[in-house]
Structure formats: structure tokens, C-alpha cells
Amino acid sequence: MLRITGGKVYDPANGIDGVIKDICIAGGRIVDTVEGGRTIDAHGTIVFPGGVDVHTHVAGGALNFARGLVPENQRVARKFLHTPKYRAGLGGATPTTFATGYLYAGMGWTTVNEAAVPILTAKHTHEELHDTPIVDKSCLLLMANNEIVLDLLEAGEQERARHVVAWLIWAAKVYGVKAVNPGGVAAWKWGKNASTLHDPIEGYRQTTPAKIIAGLAQIIDDIGLPHPLHLHCNNLGNPGNVATTIETMKVLEGRRAHLAHLQFHAYGGDDWASMRSGAAEVAEAFDAHTNLTADAGAILFGDAVTITADGPWQHMLHQLTGRKWGNLDVENETGCGIVPYVYRDRHLVNAIQWAVGLELLLLIKDPWRIFLTTDHPNGGCFWRYPEIIRLLMDVEFRKEQVKRLPEAAKSRIVLADLDREYTLSEIAIVTSAGPARALGLSAKGHLGVGADADVTVYPEKPDDGTLFSYPRYVLKGGEIMVEEGELRGLSEGREFIVHPAYDAGIEEYIRPLFQKVYTISFENYPVEMERLRHVELVGTDR
Amino acid sequence: MGGKITCTLGEVKNRADFIVYWGGNPAECHPRHFSKYTLTQKGKFVPEGRKGRTMVLVDIRETPSARAADIFLQIRPGKDFEVATTLRALLKGQRVDEPSAIETGLTLEQMRDFVDRMKRARFGVIFFGMGLSMTRGKHMNSGAILTLAAELNAFTKFVCMPMRGHGNVTGADVVLRWTTGYPFGINLSRGYPRFNPGEFSTVDLLVRGDNDAALILGADPGATMPQPGIDHLARIPTIVLDPKVTHTSRLARVHITTAVTGISAPGTAYRMDEVPLPLRPALTSPYPTDEEVIRRIRLAVSRKPAWIPTPIETMTSA
Fold this sequence. Notes:
The complex is a heterodimer of chains A (542) and B (318). By secondary structure, chain A is of the alpha/beta class. Chain A is built from 17 helices and 28 strands.
């Protein structure tokens, strides 16, 4: 039992905006009141629900590939020393699993959503998530280039495709579905891409990216998953991709969807020379589509490692930069590409990208639909979120930063004209309440009675002036993880999964198809339930 | 330069029409490779099976694998890097002198033909073995081959994969990466992971005699290491966990017999393409599993006082 007293509470999901009130905790949850137990004096602090990361890459084959690809980055990364309680590790752009848990908790984030899991290597992802301490986790299955599903969509068998998707979700023991460059990764298996929405993709006659997007979004809604289709749109990173992004929104009308890392999909112009911010057009179209949520995928200047299932884009980035390139195509399902990257403030394209991420966060009107991410580690590391928060809350500071950009960039962005400053309540929405709602995690992102007792207490006037960098207390499930700014607690964290209903006969439909094109036995394909520990099943009735 | 362009083995089965083995002898070392993944299987986009694929073997001698190949390219020992670099030059249309080419053991004509065939492939793959990665040039050879495969992607789809073996070496590599950030050659003596192959790799530590104890798991360095390394293992307290008597267990102070993983102990193995496979034991064993032994050793060690002050102890005593 625990009471946090004297802090200013920001709990936007329950309409509480900076009210001084006690937060009472018992049995790992928020309760009305407690008798006895410890009291934390939180005078001079602000009290937030624990942060929720709706889109990050922290575990699995692709990220682990990246770790091995950049030893030169690991060498200069922050070190985590082994102690009797904590495991050794490294921070940096691709932190080791244990360090990932410590870093998220140390920043006040208590729930993370790993956004890209191939079914074939889902066992590996779950092993890594288990080794990521403290935070609660969920993960999303890569589906938009799965050839068994695409073949069904080609044949117009939407109903059967629904059962296959539901079976695959349960086989991989995941929480939701991610679509990356629909059709484009399948085309990449032949060295091609899919950058137009309404042309058939390589190897198919009928199936277009638009049909995959609409088909999958419909399936997810029909199954009733708590989190809608999580979509990485076609044409990522290319100048002029605003048109594709807006067209994708039209394709999605009438269905729910979450648009991932919107920053990478909001560029105007025709080529690299004429590239400009397309944030205003995207924000306007997005405001009109209330069926959608999105995360920013903002970039920060400095080192990053780009990791995505978007193989063709990574080949392009490798050719642009000459940096080393990793690629891993996963049979019949998906692929991934990795290119280390440095975002530079003197670089015209990077400067525009930096502005676009912030512009989207500032231009999109409803904070409940746009969330703070960097698409870690693609746009920057998750442990740099406080830097973005400062840019959102402090217009003077932001305008100072804009002055550092190349002259050529200033006429191609609108950031300098935006005077909006985020309020503390809005920060609580874009970092916690909003993403929790979009994920459909009803016990996360708020401090009402019955919520998980994930609470972050920040000093109201931090010594170094940077709010949100060093929480004074972080509670996870009612246990104190961070105390007086120092990591002192440890727990294992749960994994959220769903068990959607499907026709029991579908397994016998998939088996012969599987045996024809895969190289492992069908019995070894699903993730065994015993492999997961601390599982929480979330209902699929929405 | 650098990087790794690869795929899981099913992509090869379903798509590859051009397959290169370089510095390896799969017919004897990976006997199921041809039949399960690369040559004889009918693939989704290679319905003819073997007839739809071309196989090239690059090696310094004619091994039994050459019988399976359509084209055998015999190169001189120690010339792998030169061959790979010449191929890259030809790929880019750069000028190559006949005399320098001929030193590799291949004619310029043979190499031109090889490059043309690779460019014409619909989906090509290069598998490279220890004949490339563990001979003169070592990681430079691997780097040259990986770069060749990456550069071929400007013309067609091409991937590359090391032919790994020796039990679950890929699994060890995978787990070490997510726990320490590095795949092998890791030193934890400062309390955090450091990586430097050539300094911290097992063979280098043993040959220099840097370590004063050894715990050997799932390996038999007594059979493969250079003699000074083996002598050092015999000199220091060496503990071996192995189901059977090995060269290393004979020179060890302690040999703990363990159950055979995959036969009488469960677990997970990672295939050479990093696909995890569950192992389901068919038999029971009177011996403990490797995991059980390590867990008990760890528990015993954790009961001892820490030998260096930890940050937390330092802080609380201050």
C-alpha cells in the first residue's frame, strides 16, 4: 500500500489537469484510498501516468541484426555495469534488452509496443521481450507481405483470409497486426518496390497496395482487435509522398487504422532537390479522418540506425549514403533492411525531416490522435524523448533551434510560423493517455481507480531546466522502480497478447500451403505458450 | 563498404536460380543443404527444381561437392580476396590486367563469365564456408564476398550467407547480441561488455594465456585450437560440460556429463539463417541439462561476496 501526496496530478483521460490530489495504490492498482503503508511526499512535483510507447523497435531478429552490424556505435554507447541486482549492457541507438528496460523505466515509460514481428522468428522476439525488464510489452505481427494472405486477397477470399490472419496472430502470440509498405516488401523479393497504391504488385494480377490496406484493415476490424491495423504506408521517405499518404487515408475510410511514423510520409516536392515539408497537407487531411490515429516518428539530429521491414527503401538509403547495409528477407512473409545513419542539422533533407516531425505534432489539432515517437531507433533513440518534449513546450527555444537550420531549409518548412506550445496535460496525452487508448489498453495511460499503478513523478522545476529527463519516482504496477532519481527496483513486466476466434478447420487449410513453401515443419511454426511468461490475454470484442 | 545482405533459407528454396558455394564442402559438412534448401527442392518460383538452378562451386580443390556443381572454379590457395575483388572490379566495368587475374588460378575469361552469369540471375545467393573465412585474409575475405553480394543488387536480387555449423553456434551469437550487444569475442571483466575480435576471442585469450580458468560448453577446443592454446587449457582449471568424452574433457580438471540437447534435453537452436527451432527431446536422461548445471553454478557463485565493490555498495557506504 502506498500514497503519493502533494503532487500536481495530470490525468487527462479522467479530466484531471494539474490538480493537487493524492494517488493511492494497493495490489498494483490505483484505488480510492489506503490506510497505512508508505507515503511519498510529492510536493513540488507533477504526477503523470507512466509513459506508453506506441511504436518502437526494441526486440527481435531485425534489431538484433542491427546490434551486430554496428559495433563501432556500441563501443561509444552508454555502459551499464553489472551489479548483483542489474545485468550488464549497453545503451546507444540499439540498446541491449536489459538496458532497454532500465532506460525506459528510468525515463518514466512503463509500457512499450514492439512494432515489427515476423511469424517465423516470433519465438526469438518473445525471448528478447522476456529479457526486457520492468516495462509491460506488446508486439505486432508483420502481415502486409505475407504471401499466403496475399494469395487469398488475390483470389478475393476475404473471409478465409480473416481466419488465416486470426490463426497467425494466435500462432505468433502477438497483440496486433502491422502492415509495412504493403506489397512493396513482397516485390522487393524480386528487387522491385510498390510505390503506387492502385497498380498491381509484382507477381500479382489483381492485388494492389490499396486492396491489401483496405482488406487488412477490414479484417482487423472484423476480428475486433483492441489495436487497429498499424500501417507503415507505401513510399516511405520519398519526396512527394504526401500524395500517397493522403490517398492511403482515403483508402482507409470507414475503417480504423494507426499510421506509424507519419513524419517519414509527409514530404512535398518532386525530388531531393525540391523536397519540402508536406506536414500542413498531411495534417489537414488527417484532421478530417477521425477514424485514424498516428505517431510522429520525429527525428532528432545525431546518430541513428534505420531499421525497417521496408527492404527497397533501405537499399535506396544505402545507395544514397554509401553506409553499410544489412538486409534480411524472411521467407514468404516479410523482410528487413538496416542502414546506420547520422541526421545532420546542416543537411537540407535532414533539416526538413526534423521540422516535419515537430510540425505534425503541432499542426494536428487533436492530441488524442497523434503520439510522441521517434520510431526508435530510426529517427532517434527513445531515451531522447525529453528533447522533443522541450521543443513542443517551449516556442522560444524551438525558434532558436530553427535559426540553426540551413537557409535553404527555412523557406521549405512552416515550423518557424507555429506558436503553439504544448501544455503539461497535452504532453500527458501524447506520451501516455493517447497511445494507451489507441492500443486499447484500458488499464494503462490513466490514474483512475482500477488502472495499473504505473505512475511517473517528475520534479516541477528540475535543476537542469529539462523537464521529463529525470523522474524523481517511477512506479510500475505499484512497485517503486525509480526513487530519488535513481533506478532501485526491478520487476519482469507482462506481455499482452490476444486470442482471436477462427474457424478450427483453417489450420488444415494452411498446413499444405505452408509445407510447400516453408523450410521448417508446420508443428514448429507456432510459438509455444510455455515460451511466454507473465502473459495477459486481452479480449478481442473491443 | 560492408554490411550483410541475406535471407532465410526458404527464400533460396523458393526463388534462387543461381547458387554459389565458396570455400565450403556442403556435400560432406552440411549434407542436407542441397536437398532441403538449395538445389533439388522444387520452389514456388523454381518449379523445375534442380533443372531450374545453376550451381557454382569456388574452392581450392575438387571436393565431393564439385560433383553437384554445374561449374567448378578452382582457385589458388589464399587467393579468395583477390578473386572476390576482381569480380567486383569486373562488375563495375573497371579494367583488370590479365597477368594479375591469372595469379588467382582463374582466367579473366572465366571470371567475366562468372560475373555475367551472376548479373543475369533472377535471384542469386552466395554461401561461404570456413575455407574462405578462416584462411589468409580471414574477415577481409568475408567482407569482400559480402560486399560483392551487396553490389550485385544494383543489377539483380542477390544475397549472401555464411555456412555456419558446430552445434548451436548461431544461437550463441544471437543471444550474446541481445544480452551484450556483440556476437562473440566479448570481455566482461570491467563489468560491461567490450568487443575486440583478435584480442578477446577465445583462441587469442588461450594462446596468450590471459585467462586463469575456463568453462567450456558445447564446444571441443581441445580438438581444433592451436597447440599453445590447448597447452594453456591443460595448465589452468578447465571445466567441461559435455554429454560425451572429448579431446577437451580429457585435459579438463572437471568434466560434468550432461544430457544431449535435442535428444534428451529440450531447448532452442538457431539455424544458420537465425530461424529459431524448438528442440523436443525424444528420450529422458539421467544427466542434468546444461542449463540446470549452469543455473546451479550461478546460484552458488551468487552466494559468495562480490569480489569488486559494486556501484550500489559504494554509494550506500559513502
